[in-house]
């Protein structure tokens, strides 16, 4: 167990270093940060000096090395645009993204898993319509869904806000939208947008796995023992379905945070994804680097959790390690 | 009463010396004040200075307003002005160019200062409308005596906090998310101020569709800008309307006429744009009126020059739109030796100006009709500027650019856009195509020091007429400002696209 | 040759796959829609009324014409025009062509890369296997859309600037393709490890046949089933990814628009009353993706012996 | 009134290619405490009968006629709910594979308890208590502890016991066991059969045991029903069926069973089965391509195949730290020499390393120690290229005819592949001719060349495998359990074919099996393996009559005796001592 975790941590560090290197190779080409940092009256000489000061003229590897050494000490530098430490900036934006992702993930799981089970067990109209909805869910691009929702619920019906987080309450550095009415209202549309795709994915996955498990011999034997369907479906089939579902779902939940970029852009949701997109526009290299690293970290952590969950769910793994 | 408004981006910082950018400065102008300011028509009006004079060519005297207090309650004096000027010269400052307009400021008494300029400067008050005055005591107390600097490694207090003399004070600042302001009770100009909002909430909304939706759904009182194509929708929607006027920004296309061979073209060994006939052909091929009508919904103002009508020194003689003439354009190309035209890449930002990319596309299809095949390279402004600006080596053959002289004076345009490029004197910095005519340079230098306004305007006119005769640029239009406003709110849309809360009247 | 074709058709007509296809109305409709879209895309220059890429043929004066059936419509622009005077119908047809090309090419790229690496990984095992799988892990810790964003950024930067437009398409294909290979590699690796131990592979090894021939001739044909299924569903994902990238503005330029680019452009007309600029490309995109997904669904069920 | 009575049972499987009548007019009876065997070849409909009785026929299958009654009560028309009450409570079922019959994620206790709670309506605590007793009954040591374990913590034999405990825990009246020991080793099989018989007799339960293994039938059944293509051909007491069958099919089925007691020259031809009719075409080895062994090179003195200190170690778990690594010695110090023309047999339980030895000799594995010598050359020292001529001389026939043919290749290409690869013929025309001849030799006929493997039955596929192995004109043929996946009658044909080929072509053979009777019929000399070690090597008859090693004795003791089988008309070479 310990060596397993140690191995994972080592692997994760490698992943992060690679991500950082790739990011730095890329930054050379995303544009000139200085153009966005100064006004039109700033002379070329001053601009060149600023470049020099920021170390933008150093080779990629020097910049990369500098970034990694500083990052190792918890210092991600200053945002070019905001002129504040990137870590503070991300910390400020993290709650918004996490709350949105969390609600979406819960929605995706709470709706996706039962729908998957239902469609696997029944072949009726409801089940067929779930399947149809799921097809639509994976066929509609996220950005289209978001725009459509705004058009219908904000502009036409005026039920829900079209952008932002509403009022937030600050709890010891964590700004939450869960505690106010406007905060909750603002959460609905973006969360649906983000959840829809993942939900259908999870539903289809659960369905496929469940169908597979239902054909296993031990299910046949359970029938031969005269167990009622309910017991067979939920105690035996569902639990066995969970093992493969956990892996994919884990990764999917990770990509919820990544896909939040699009949702946050559409809904002006003040999270990290929006920050990232805005940073790309103004070539705010330190923010971009830190964001990419953070996402990689989230994935690494999710992977670790998934692996640990395996131990919880599957007794076959417990004894071996 | 609460006023809510949205813009496509946020003010970069609250530090008035952090970034010389119109929106940021215009936003800060509600909190901080300069010596001399603009009114709703961009006319100079007294702010923290009540009187100013130019007793000698290189000397200006400003009389300062008495009884002004900063938001923290401390009084305003000449020391604050001198401190602010010095602060604008600190390493992190982006206002160095403005600060450098003075070589020294002497305090005559607590409410009089004497400014010495390195060269005669007839428009100093104008050039300083965005040099905001900060409190010396406050800055020293909060360790913010230097401008916010990316390199410092330390967070500058002034970056997220403000202490100005303006009508509104910041009560909450979450960059990129929202900024909340409250009316300043002890504002010196309270009596005359029309604006009646008690609280102001500002939120940036990046996506156009979301921004418009926020207005229509009633979440916002004013949003800026709205896409011109959505005006009809705003007209139709209840309770909101579009508000528009030509902005002081001129949009034009430049051509690389300095290199011997274009960087991005199929013509090798020579530069077609060096031939005045080719440049004329390009200009004549483009129908600015059609672009205005179809792409800008008639909201722009076709223009024949690099400065807009609102700019000091503008004259119709060089600013009237140029009529297209496709046949002549073709003939000129043939004459110049390009009967089948040629290919060239047009660099274009896609998130900087109103419908910038669409304008470029339209220009491309118009040029295609005379045989010039345009490869359109539309990129985000970060990439675009990273490619075309001098520090990247002006890597462009043809580009679309917009320009508002920060001083609202034509000299700024002459200096930056029409003067020969010279890195030493920093002239022609935005003359990305390297247009060069020594006669224009000569005139520009004279305009810079001429204090007689009539003579000065005559020289401006002469210089721009030369640029036009050289077909040095393809001017397109003055882009429209385009705001979406609730019907019951009165705002003044200034030609520099700045939201001045002093002019916002709620019902 | 003729004979072969004939037997192929005979076998197809008799196969379970064909039978289950005929039995499934959803699959048939999806196939017909896909076929129509593919044909339209293939023969775009022949069937589209205008050439939306020919800048010289555009007239800005035709701009903003509504669809032909509405009051101000113009019969030569069936679905109306955009703000440049481009015929929407033609733009959609050409856009579909671009989207399909990007989708198919990037899937092909993923398949080739993923299948080869998966085969090598599964067959060789040991260090080679762990090495390839670690790379896959690294990539998996990064969402596809970000990978595509990164690659796109790097590639655009590294190529000579004036080549952008010409290669944007291929860069996109590469970016989307590279972000998708892992799934194939993992599936193929698993299948290969199963096949590798099957006795027909041992028999081939006994004969003395080299590993690459074994992989190509023996293992590859036997693992193509699951690959086909993933590929179909991946095609839909690739088309959407391209649209999303184009929507974020890092995809294809508006001068050679894909459906995603058209939607992005149209998006700014959503409130303008010029609904046709965004609606028609959206419909085309959704129809294409939906049809492909339906086909993929059907194929997965049909090829899965356990579900029969 | 019998315990279970089946009359006129008819089961159909409808598909788009027509309706298959799987069971036709079947009549069965079962008394209390009686064990009824149902035998028949694969596909005869044995499992279908079992599934139908318990109401678990798979989807297209339908009971279209007849009646099933349990203690006089008609149950075939029961609805799902009533049927569920019946299942597990009054009729239980045991399936073939203990590995997959248990839910891997639930403890044995919870699986036992839930069954009892559902049927007996007892509390959870009570059920848990009884679960321990149930495990005790099937002879699992330390049941109180083991009951908390998960299935994967049990060995195969113990898992099958757990399955039996599950089937018995509600004290049913009838147990249907569908091939309950096929997946198990002989020694475990014997234990399980003992257990089943004991439980049946003690509790007076009626049991139907479905199998194709005559050994199992002889061991425990009281009566036997023989199924052929869904029809009952014969039914009667076990002694009578085995010793003096009436029906021709039964007779041919029984004669095809490899006999442990006598060595036969040839297996009797099973002429009741159509597939057996295709005769092997006699070819003149002297003139035929198969006989031209031009390039075998000079024959060295000594054995043709010899292993010296052969060892193979598998790493089960690789780890950075040495102490965490796990390895398994599958083969240890294996020394054997096989003379040219000899058939050498290798027996041993599952996992004893037989297949590993075969693969090592064939060169599919590189040994961790020792060497393999072929005609005096050390094969382990050769490069891939140098190995090629030897590859041609060593070929192998595998156990599983279903996975040993590439399903995407035509039979022609499968058989021609080695010929083409080694360029053994001068032209493609000749290749085809050779392939056709080979197909004739193995009794499939030339028409088979154009087909794909899935169009053949298991026995036919095994013939294709043999043809492919012959296509390199091998000198040494390794047969790794070539018939263990096949029915007895088909097994007989294949073994006959191998015998014939070995004799006509003068092949040297390594013949691997865990089935002692088969070994006895096929081999000249035999090696007994256990835990990767060769325990004893002896002439076949010596081994069977007087085994030396303790383990060999034990193994022979487990061999089902099939007592009372008739010897009429058999071509006997030797009779064993016990006879
Ligand atoms: N689900 C099914 N669908 C179609 N046909 C089936 C199905 N199950 C069995 N059959 C057919 O019914 C016949 C009897 O099959 P069954 O499984 O009862 O044979 P068996 O005697 O148990 O054989 P084995 O010894 O191989 O287990 C076979 O011909 C088989 O092909
Ligand atoms: N590739 C492998 N990796 C790890 N262990 C292996 C491998 N192949 C075989 N083994 C192990 O080596 C031992 C011997 O296996 P082998 O297949 O030779 O046995 P066998 O006598 O042929 O058994 P069976 O009768 O079941 O075929 C077994 O314990 C098996 O689990
Ligand atoms: Mg069976
Ligand atoms: Mg074996």
Automatic annotation (TrEMBL), chain A:
Residues 94-310 form the ABC transmembrane type-1 domain. It comes from the Bacteria. It is a multi-pass membrane protein. The chain crosses the membrane at residues 12-30, 100-121, 133-155, 184-206, 242-269, 289-313. PROSITE patterns: ABC_TM1. It is found in: Cell membrane. Keywords: Cell membrane, Membrane, Transmembrane, Transmembrane helix, Transport. GO terms for cellular component: plasma membrane. Its main location: membrane. One of its GO terms (biological process) is transmembrane transport. PANTHER family: ABC TRANSPORTER PERMEASE PROTEIN (PTHR43163:SF2), DIPEPTIDE TRANSPORT SYSTEM PERMEASE PROTEIN DPPB-RELATED (PTHR43163). Belongs to the binding-protein-dependent transport system permease family. This is ABC transporter permease. It comes from Pigmentiphaga aceris. The lineage of its organism: Bacteria, Pseudomonadati, Pseudomonadota, Betaproteobacteria, Burkholderiales.
UniProtKB/TrEMBL annotation, chain C:
One of its GO terms (cellular component) is plasma membrane. The chain crosses the membrane at residues 27-47, 100-123, 135-155, 167-184, 223-253, 273-296. It comes from Pigmentiphaga aceris. Residues 96-296 form the ABC transmembrane type-1 domain. Keywords: Cell membrane, Membrane, Transmembrane, Transmembrane helix, Transport. It holds the Pfam family BPD_transp_1. This is ABC transporter permease. Its main location: membrane. Belongs to the binding-protein-dependent transport system permease family. It is found in: Cell membrane. It is a multi-pass membrane protein. It comes from the Bacteria. The keyword Cell membrane applies. GO terms for biological process: transmembrane transport.
Automatic annotation (TrEMBL), chain D:
It holds the Pfam family oligo_HPY. Residues 6-254, 316-556 form the ABC transporter domain. It comes from the Bacteria. GO terms for molecular function: ATP binding; ATP hydrolysis activity. Signal peptide: none annotated. One of its GO terms (biological process) is peptide transport. Keywords: ATP-binding, Cell membrane, Membrane, Nucleotide-binding, Transport. PANTHER family: D,D-DIPEPTIDE TRANSPORT ATP-BINDING PROTEIN DDPF-RELATED, TRANSPORT ATP-BINDING PROTEIN. Belongs to the ABC transporter superfamily. This is ABC transporter ATP-binding protein. It comes from Pigmentiphaga aceris.
């Amino acid at each position: 167990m310990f060596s397993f975790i140690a191995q994972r941590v080592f692997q994760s560090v490698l992943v992060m270093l690679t991500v950082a290197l790739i990011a730095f190779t890329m930054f050379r080409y995303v544009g000139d940060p200085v153009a966005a940092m100064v006004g039109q009256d700033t002379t070329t000489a001053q601009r060149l000096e600023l470049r020099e000061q920021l170390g933008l003229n150093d080779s990629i590897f020097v910049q990369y090395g500098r970034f990694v050494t500083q990052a190792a000490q918890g210092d991600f530098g200053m945002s070019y645009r905001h002129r504040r430490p990137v870590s503070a900036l991300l910390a400020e934006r993290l709650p918004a993204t996490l709350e949105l992702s969390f609600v979406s993930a819960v929605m995706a799981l709470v709706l996706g898993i039962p729908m998957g089970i239902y469609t696997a067990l029944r072949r009726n109209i409801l089940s067929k319509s779930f399947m149809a909805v799921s097809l639509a869910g994976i066929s509609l691009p996220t950005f289209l869904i978001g725009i459509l929702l705004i058009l219908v619920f904000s502009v036409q019906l005026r039920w829900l806000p079209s952008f932002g987080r509403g009022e937030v309450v600050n709890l010891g550095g964590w700004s939450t939208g869960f505690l106010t009415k406007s905060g909750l209202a603002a959460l609905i549309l973006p969360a649906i947008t983000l959840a829809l795709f993942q939900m259908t994915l999870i539903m289809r996955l659960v369905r496929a796995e469940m169908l597979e498990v239902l054909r296993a011999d031990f299910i046949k034997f359970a029938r031969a023992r005269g167990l009622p369907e309910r017991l067979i479906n939920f105690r035996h089939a569902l639990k066995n379905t969970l093992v493969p579902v956990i892996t994919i779902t884990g990764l999917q939940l990770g990509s919820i945070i990544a896909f939040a970029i699009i949702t946050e852009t559409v809904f002006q949701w003040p999270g990290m994804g929006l920050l990232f997109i805005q940073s790309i526009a103004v070539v705010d290299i330190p923010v971009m680097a830190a964001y990419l690293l953070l996402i990689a970290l989230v994935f690494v952590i999710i992977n670790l959790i998934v692996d640990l969950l395996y131990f919880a769910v599957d007794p076959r793994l417990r004894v071996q390690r | 009463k609460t006023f809510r408004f949205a813009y496509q981006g946020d003010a970069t910082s609250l530090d008035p010396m952090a970034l010389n950018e119109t929106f940021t400065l215009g936003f800060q102008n509600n909190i901080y004040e300069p010596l001399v300011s603009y009114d709703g028509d961009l006319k100079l009006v007294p702010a923290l200075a009540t009187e100013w004079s130019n007793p000698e060519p290189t000397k200006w005297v400003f009389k300062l307003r008495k009884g002004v207090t900063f938001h923290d309650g401390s009084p305003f004096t000449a020391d604050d002005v001198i401190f602010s000027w010095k602060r604008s010269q600190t390493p992190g400052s982006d206002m160095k160019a403005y600060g450098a307009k003075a070589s020294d400021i002497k305090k005559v008494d607590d409410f009089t200062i004497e400014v010495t300029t390195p060269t005669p400067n007839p428009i100093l008050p104008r050039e300083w409308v965005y040099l905001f005055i900060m409190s010396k005591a406050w800055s020293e107390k909060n360790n913010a005596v230097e401008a916010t600097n990316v390199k410092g490694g330390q967070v500058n207090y002034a970056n997220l906090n403000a202490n100005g003399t303006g009508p509104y004070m910041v009560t909450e600042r979450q960059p990129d998310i929202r900024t909340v302001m409250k009316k300043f009770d002890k504002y010196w100009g309270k009596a005359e101020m029309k604006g009646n909002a008690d609280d102001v909430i500002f939120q940036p909304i990046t996506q156009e569709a979301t921004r418009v939706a926020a207005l229509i759904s009633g979440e916002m009182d004013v949003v800026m800008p709205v896409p011109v194509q959505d005006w009809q929708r705003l007209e139709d929607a209840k309770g909101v309307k579009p508000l528009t006027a030509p902005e002081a920004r001129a949009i034009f296309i430049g051509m690389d006429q300095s290199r011997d061979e274009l960087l991005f073209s199929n013509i090798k060994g020579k530069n077609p744009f060096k031939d005045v006939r080719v440049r004329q052909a390009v200009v004549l091929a483009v129908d600015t009126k059609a672009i205005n009508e179809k792409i800008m919904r008639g909201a722009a103002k076709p223009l024949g020059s690099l400065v807009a009508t609102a700019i000091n020194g503008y004259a119709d003689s060089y600013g009237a739109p140029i009529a297209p003439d496709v046949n002549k354009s073709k003939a000129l190309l043939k004459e110049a030796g390009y009967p089948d035209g040629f290919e060239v890449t047009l660099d274009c930002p896609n998130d900087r100006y109103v419908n910038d990319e669409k304008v470029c596309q339209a220009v491309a299809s118009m040029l295609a009709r005379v045989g010039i095949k345009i490869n359109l390279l539309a990129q985000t402004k970060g990439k675009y500027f990273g490619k075309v600006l001098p520090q990247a080596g002006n890597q462009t053959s043809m580009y679309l650019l917009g320009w508002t002289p920060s001083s609202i004076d034509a000299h700024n345009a002459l200096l930056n856009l029409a003067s020969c490029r010279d890195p030493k004197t920093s002239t022609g910095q935005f003359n990305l195509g390297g247009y060069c005519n020594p006669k224009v340079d000569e005139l520009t230098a004279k305009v810079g020091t001429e204090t007689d306004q009539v003579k000065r305007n005559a020289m401006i006119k002469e210089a721009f007429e030369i640029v036009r005769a050289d077909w040095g640029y393809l001017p397109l239009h003055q882009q429209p400002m385009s705001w979406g406003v609730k019907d019951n709110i009165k705002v003044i849309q200034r030609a520099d696209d700045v939201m001045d809360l002093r002019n916002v009247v709620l019902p | 040759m003729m004979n072969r074709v004939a037997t192929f058709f005979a076998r197809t007509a008799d196969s379970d796959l064909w039978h289950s296809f005929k039995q499934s109305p959803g699959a048939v409709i999806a196939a017909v829609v896909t076929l129509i879209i593919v044909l339209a895309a293939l023969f775009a220059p022949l069937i589209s009324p205008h050439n939306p890429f020919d800048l010289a043929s555009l007239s800005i004066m035709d701009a903003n014409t509504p669809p032909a059936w509405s009051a101000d419509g113009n019969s030569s622009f069936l679905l109306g025009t955009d703000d440049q005077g481009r015929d929407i119908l033609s733009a959609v047809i050409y856009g579909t062509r671009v989207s399909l090309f990007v989708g198919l090419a990037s899937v092909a790229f993923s398949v080739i890369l993923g299948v080869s690496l998966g085969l090598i990984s599964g067959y060789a095992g040991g260090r080679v296997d762990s090495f390839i799988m670690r790379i896959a892990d690294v990539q998996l810790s990064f969402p596809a859309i970000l990978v595509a964003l990164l690659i796109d950024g790097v590639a655009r930067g590294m190529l000579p600037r004036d080549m952008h437009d010409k290669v944007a398409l291929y860069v996109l294909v590469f970016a989307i393709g590279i972000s998708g290979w892992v799934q194939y590699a993992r599936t193929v690796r698993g299948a290969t490890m199963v096949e590798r131990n099957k006795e027909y592979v041992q028999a081939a090894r006994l004969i003395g046949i080299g590993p690459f021939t074994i992989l190509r001739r023996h293992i590859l044909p036997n693992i193509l089933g699951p690959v086909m299924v993933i590929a179909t569903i991946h095609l839909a994902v690739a088309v959407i990814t391209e649209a999303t990238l184009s929507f974020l503005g890092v995809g294809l330029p508006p001068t050679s628009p894909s459906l995603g680019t058209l939607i992005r452009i149209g998006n700014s007309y959503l409130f303008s009353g010029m609904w046709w600029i965004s609606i028609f490309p959206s419909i085309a995109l959704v129809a294409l993706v939906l049809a492909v997904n339906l086909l993929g669904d059907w194929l997965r069920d049909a090829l899965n012996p356990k579900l029969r | 009134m019998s315990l279970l009575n089946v009359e006129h049972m008819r089961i159909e499987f409808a598909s788009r290619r027509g309706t298959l009548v799987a069971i036709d007019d079947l009549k069965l009876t079962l008394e209390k405490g009686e064990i009824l065997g149902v035998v028949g070849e694969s596909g005869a409909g044995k499992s279908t009968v079992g599934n139908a009785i318990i109401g678990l026929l798979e989807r297209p299958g339908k009971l279209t006629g007849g009646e099933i009654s349990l203690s006089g009560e008609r149950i075939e028309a029961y609805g799902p709910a009533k049927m569920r009450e019946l299942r597990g409570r009054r009729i239980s079922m045991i399936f073939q594979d203990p590995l997959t019959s248990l839910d891997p994620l639930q403890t044995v206790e919870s699986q036992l308890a839930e069954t009892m709670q559902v049927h007996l309506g007892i509390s959870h605590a009570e059920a848990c208590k009884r679960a321990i007793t149930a495990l005790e009954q099937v002879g699992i040591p330390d049941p109180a502890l083991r009951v908390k374990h998960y299935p994967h913590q049990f060995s195969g034999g113990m898992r099958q016991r757990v399955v039996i405990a599950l089937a018995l825990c509600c004290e049913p009246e009838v147990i249907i066991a569908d091939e309950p020991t096929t997946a198990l080793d002989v020694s475990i099989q014997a234990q399980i059969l003992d257990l089943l018989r004991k439980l049946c007799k003690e509790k007076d339960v009626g049991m139907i045991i479905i199998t194709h293994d005559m050994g199992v039938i002889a061991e425990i059944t009281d009566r036997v029903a023989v199924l052929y293509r869904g029809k009952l051909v014969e039914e009667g007491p076990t002694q009578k069926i085995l010793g003096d069958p009436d029906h021709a099919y039964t007779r041919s089925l029984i004669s095809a069973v490899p006999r442990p007691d006598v060595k036969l020259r040839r297996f009797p031809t099973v002429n009741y089965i159509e597939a057996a009719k295709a005769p092997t075409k006699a070819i003149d080895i002297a003139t035929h391509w198969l006989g031209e062994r031009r390039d075998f090179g000079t024959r060295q003195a000594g054995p043709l195949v010899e292993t010296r200190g052969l060892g193979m170690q598998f790493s089960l778990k690789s780890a950075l730290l040495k102490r965490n690594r796990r390895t398994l010695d599958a083969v240890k110090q294996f020394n054997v020499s096989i003379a040219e023309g000899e058939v050498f047999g290798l027996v041993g339980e599952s996992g004893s390393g037989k297949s590993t030895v075969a693969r090592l000799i064939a060169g599919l594995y590189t040994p961790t120690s020792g060497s393999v010598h072929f005609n005096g050359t050390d094969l382990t020292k050769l490069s891939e290229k140098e190995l090629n001529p030897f590859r041609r001389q060593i070929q192998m026939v595998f156990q599983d005819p279903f996975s040993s043919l590439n399903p995407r290749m035509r039979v022609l290409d499968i058989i021609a592949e080695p010929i083409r690869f080694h360029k053994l013929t001068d032209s493609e025309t000749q290749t085809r001719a050779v392939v056709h001849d080979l197909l004739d030799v193995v009794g499939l006929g030339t028409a088979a060349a154009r087909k794909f493997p899935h169009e053949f039955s298991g026995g036919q596929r095994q013939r294709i495998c043999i043809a492919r192995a012959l296509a390199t004109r091998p000198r040494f043929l390794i047969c790794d359990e070539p018939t263990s996946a096949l029915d007895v009658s088909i097994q007989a044909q294949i073994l006959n074919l191998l015998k014939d080929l070995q004799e006509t072509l003068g092949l040297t053979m390594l013949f691997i099996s865990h089935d002692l009777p088969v070994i006895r019929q096929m081999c000249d000399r035999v090696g007994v393996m256990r835990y990767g070690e060769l325990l004893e090597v002896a002439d076949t008859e010596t081994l069977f009559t007087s085994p030396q090693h303790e383990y060999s004795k034990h193994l022979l003791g487990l061999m089902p005796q099939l007592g009372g089988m008739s010897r009429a008309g058999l071509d006997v070479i030797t009779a064993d001592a016990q006879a």
